[in-house]
Amino acid sequence: MGLLLDILSTAAMLFIVTAGLMIIFGVMKIVNFAHGAIITLGSYASLIVTQLGLNPWLALPLAL
């Protein structure tokens, strides 16, 4: 059950990133890679927070 939840949450995150990039590309006809950089920084911030042993919900405001 845990593996299925991991797969679904990863697929949902990838879908959100892809949908955002496709909307930007559809409107501007230019691929904007800044979204990927911001998502990477947010993911890195949440990884650091969880590795420090802090509450994972604390990662949300720190990632923003």
State the main characteristics.
64 residues, mainly alpha, 3 helices, 78% helix
The oligomeric state of the chains shown is single chain
What is the general shape?
A: flat
Uncertain runs are: none
Tell me the strand percentage band.
under 5%
Q: Biggest sheet, in brief?
A: none
Number of helices: 3
Rg from Cα: 14 Å
| Main structural class | mainly alpha
Distance between the termini: 30 Å
Mean pLDDT: 82
What's the number of extended β-strand segments? Answer: 0
User: What is the helix content?
Assistant: over 70%
Question: How is this structure best described in words?
Answer:
The protein starts with a helix and ends with a helix. It has helices at residues 2-28, 34-51, 59-63. It has 64 residues and is mainly α. It is built from three helices and no strands. The chain is flat. The model has no long low-confidence stretch (mean pLDDT 82). Helices cover 78% and strands 0% of the residues.
